[in-house]
Design a protein that fits this description.
22 strands; alpha/beta; 718 residues; disordered N terminus; 22 helices; four-stranded mixed β-sheet
């Protein structure tokens, strides 16, 4: 870092305007309460010194910077004018006046509606409106407010000049931002979502008067429709590729075959940025997060920087003055960790992330033990364990589950079991034995028993297959024309599941309604090698007549791990170092996570960090029982609400803790298991969640809850 963390923390701790007036515990929550004096806001005119430090926009920013003010009534930063009640589970989705041509404002509102609800459970029974949500203030008080946040939004592209990266970056600055006590959090999008994919994380900052830095990290939900040759722009509206030029958020690049020839031979296909940009976006997720933070600092100074006597805005609120926490969940959480590792310029002060996608290097080898016993497998790469899940989880989902959980589809699930046995990949004389063996394979591959009930629903939603296909293309820097392992993306016909033209009204809203990883928004995986030609992958019939959800395709994706130099090179660009540069950091992760298992992600990362930083490490890892990856599923899918608690509660608490550490010197809680209580029962709806279901992170955990690291071995209690 260009300046020590201690220096920055000291500045935050002993601000003479604050420390005598507000107790440390309250200062954590009332970040703007002690502001005073000249705030150098944009309302001030000139009269300052001649500009010595002009607020030049970052060199990576290309094109026009969009700036929009929101009044907090008709529209706002957090809820797009919908308010807390407009995001609730029973709310009706906003619709555009002209479904075929939605405006940028309409697309933004629909994107915020969908992305917020895709990350958190918005059912009041699950805690929305009582434990978290726009109406819950920073102190945890439930208010009558709709939680709308007025302020200014800046948006632009970060690019190298080619127009092929065009990573969207955005800064939101609430009206109550205090330039005398500035704070900023990053909220990089989760999954492969677009620019508003981190809005539910950004809420924590907006409520506290902090600016929020967002990036889509080179992914996004708006596809290149090859039939119409239209592409998404930065605001989600669509335009012909030739007219959009370098203003396209994404335009597919051809492989060995031209896009025109490919489309003639394969009509109705779509290209998605994460899969088909040929950029391997994940290699730059840390950089993109740092760029978003730097852009947000520029935006802060654009509003509040001192104006010199020459009329030039100065960068008077430097990085040393702004408290910065890198945050986000899932892929965004991994991006925040990557950014902290790569932060050679000292932009970031602390880290607080949930369920991060972090990939371990082969060396140093980290051992993970649970209850004193070494786990079956740990520290494997996302592509490695996901392609394993893609083979076995559909069969494992045939296991008889406790009520009210339901198994995976019997036809595809049973046939997948039989095909795996036929190929020598599984054993068992009957369905029950085969499902048990598939589950044993997953346990040996690093999944915890607490995830057993999740394999059926995740495989039914084609989670592992969708991720395997997207990431295989991304890591390999493949083109849409390559049809890697015989997969493409298209809208399925209602009658026969074969590729058809995506409905225009559906296409027009993909920026706002999709998640960037088909199946999503009327677009699904197509099996190009199926009997009878391309058809929806899950229902396809193989050349040999079996209907097993395309096991040949799953095996092809798995084989790329060892047979493709291009994919291996791409994977090599996504590994973490563990060196958080002495920054205070907290990771929260649900023990039951079936998508990003703790044994391959947060548990070994804790060990990697301790090996990399030794006594300089300030990382705490919080493992939450009854926590899984998709809070949004909790009050939607059978069994989830009875069993799982919202992990979002613990992300907010981690942010509180890191903020308190930076602003007030409060010690971070040590690494520990937090033991929650399920809502219980088997009926739907499940009982109302209570604060007692989600106990706080302990400042001094019980001995039986402490997570420790000895050398390169992580020890997690049962």
């Amino acid at each position: 870092m260009t300046h020590s963390l201690a220096t920055r923390a000291g500045k935050f701790l002993v601000d003479p305007r604050c420390h005598t007036a507000v107790a440390a515990a309250v200062a954590v929550l009332l970040i703007g309460a002690c502001g005073g004096g000249d705030n150098n806001n944009s309302g001030g005119g000139g009269g300052g010194p001649v500009t010595q430090n002009p607020n030049n926009r970052p060199t990576f920013v290309v094109g026009t910077i969009g700036v929009q003010n929101y009044d907090g009534t008709t529209d706002d930063l957090l809820t797009a004018g919908l308010g807390k009640d407009g995001l609730i589970a029973t709310a009706t989705a906003p619709v555009p006046a002209d479904p075929a041509a939605p405006t940028a404002a309409e697309l933004r509102r629909i994107a915020i509606f969908n992305n917020y609800r895709a990350i958190v459970d918005t059912n009041p029974l699950g805690g929305y409106g009582s434990l978290y949500g726009p109406n819950v203030d920073p102190q945890g008080n439930v208010t009558a407010s709709q939680g709308k946040v007025p302020g200014t939004e800046y948006i632009a592209f970060a690019d190298d000049g080619t127009g092929q990266q065009n990573v969207t970056i955005m800064a939101q600055i609430p009206t109550n931002f205090d330039p005398a006590n500035p704070c900023l959090i990053s909220a990089t999008s989760s999954g492969s979502r677009g620019i508003y994919g981190g809005i539910s994380v950004g809420e924590w900052g907006l409520k506290r008067g902090c600016a929020v830095a967002y990036t889509d990290k080179g992914t996004g939900a708006g596809p290149h429709d090859l039939d119409s040759d239209t592409v998404p722009l930065i605001n989600g509206t669509r335009q012909a590729r030739t007219g959009a030029g370098k203003l396209a958020q994404f335009a597919a690049q051809p492989g060995a075959q031209s896009l025109a020839d490919f489309t003639t031979a394969n009509p109705h296909r779509l290209a998605y940025k994460h899969a088909h940009s040929k950029q391997n976006p994940e290699a730059n997720w840390g950089l993109n997060t740092l760029q978003a933070i730097e852009f947000a600092m520029w935006a802060i100074n654009d509003k509040f920087g001192t104006v010199g006597s020459d009329g030039v805005r100065q960068a008077s609120i430097g990085k040393d003055k702004i408290l910065v926490i890198a945050s986000a969940v899932s892929n965004g959480g991994g991006a925040a960790i990557a950014a902290a590792e790569q932060d050679t310029n000292g932009l970031i002060d602390g880290v607080a992330v949930g369920e991060p996608n972090v990939n371990m290097p082969a060396v140093p080898a980290i051992t993970v033990k649970r209850g004193g016993v070494t786990v079956g497998s740990s520290g494997r790469h996302l592509y490695d364990y996901t392609t394993t899940a893609n083979l076995f989880s559909l069969c494992a989902g045939q296991k008889v589950l406790p009520a009210p959980f339901t198994p995976s589809p019997a036809l595809q699930g049973g046939n997948r079991c039989a095909s795996l046995v036929g190929g020598g990949q599984l054993a068992g004389a009957d369905l029950i034995a085969r499902a048990d063996d598939a589950l044993d394979h997953l346990h040996a591959a690093g999944w915890e028993p607490e995830s057993d009930v999740l394999h059926a629903s995740l495989s039914t939603f084609e989670v592992a297959s969708s991720i395997s296909v997207t990431y295989a293309n991304s890591y390999s820097r493949a083109s849409v024309t390559d049809k890697l392992c015989g997969y493409t993306f298209a809208s399925p016909g209602a009658a026969d599941n074969k590729p058809v033209t995506i409905p225009p009204n559906t296409l027009a809203l993909t920026f706002s309604t999709g998640n960037g990883v088909p199946p999503s928004t009327g677009v699904t995986l197509m099996n190009e090698s199926a009997q009878g030609g391309a058809i929806r992958d899950f229902v396809s019939i193989n050349a040999d007549g079996t209907q097993d959800a395309n096991l040949p395709g799953a095996n092809c994706l798995r084989d790329l791990l060892t047979n493709s130099a291009a994919l291996q090179a791409g994977i090599g660009q996504t590994l973490r170092t563990g060196n958080l540069r002495g920054k205070p950091a907290m990771i929260v992760h649900g023990r039951s996570d079936g998508l990003l298992p703790v044994n391959h992600t947060s548990r070994p990362y804790l060990g990697l960090n301790k090996v990399a930083e030794g006594t300089s490490s300030k990382l705490s890892y919080i493992e939450v029982t009854n926590g899984q990856h998709f809070d949004a599923f909790i009050d939607v899918l059978p069994g989830y609400a009875n069993t799982f608690i919202p992990l979002h509660v613990y992300l907010n608490r981690a942010l509180d803790a890191v903020y308190a550490n930076l602003r007030s010197g409060t010690a971070l809680p040590p690494s520990q298991v937090v033991r929650t209580t399920s809502r219980g029962g088997t009926a739907a709806p499940a009982p109302q969640i209570l604060p007692s279901n989600v106990p706080p992170i302990a400042a001094t955990p019980a001995a039986g809850d402490v997570i420790s690291v000895s050398g390169s071995t992580v020890n997690v209690p049962n």
